[in-house]
Amino acid sequence: MKKITLLLIVITGIVSSASAQLLPTFQFGVKGGVNLSAISTSGSVFNNLNTNNRAGFLGGVWARIGGAGFHFQPEVYYTSKNVTFKNDAGAYDKAEFKSIDVPLLVGTRFGVPALGVRLNTGPLVSFAIDKNQDIHGALVEASDLHYKDQNYAWQFGAGVDIKSISFDLRYELGLSKVDNFADDGHAKINMFNLTVAYRLFGL
User: Which residues belong to the signal peptide in this entry (predicted)?
Assistant: First the structure.
């Protein structure tokens, strides 16, 4: 009798765990963090010009819809991306790009509800909202990027969930050139970001 009872408990646990994985869930929260941006350049317009990484910030909201061990995670956040330009003579200037970024990620999660590890990847669309650049002097012609209104990138990342708090580290690979130059050069933004997220509620 004890063996039968124990077997029923084990079977119930397995079924409950499987059901929890298969049933879709919904979570919503806020997030914020820092980024480290770099611009990769090519073409004659960028000759004798180097770019250095600089820190920026981001903040916004996220949602996660999951089931069967996989999830879809759309996000919307405000981003400030900063880059320093420097020429061979040592003169330098700064450029700051402000945008609304929308990643559309798919991923999987390993672990228990209170503690888990996630892997995410997916495209990102960036909508410029401020294209003013703090660039002047000798670097104007070379470093004025004429930032486009809409740009595309691809994100790869991993995260850790600890109860209602999540930590994410991602790499963002620029897919489209962010400038409006013709054939004499182009620039793409690549970026790392580290964020902390808080789950406001889940279903």
Answer: 1-20
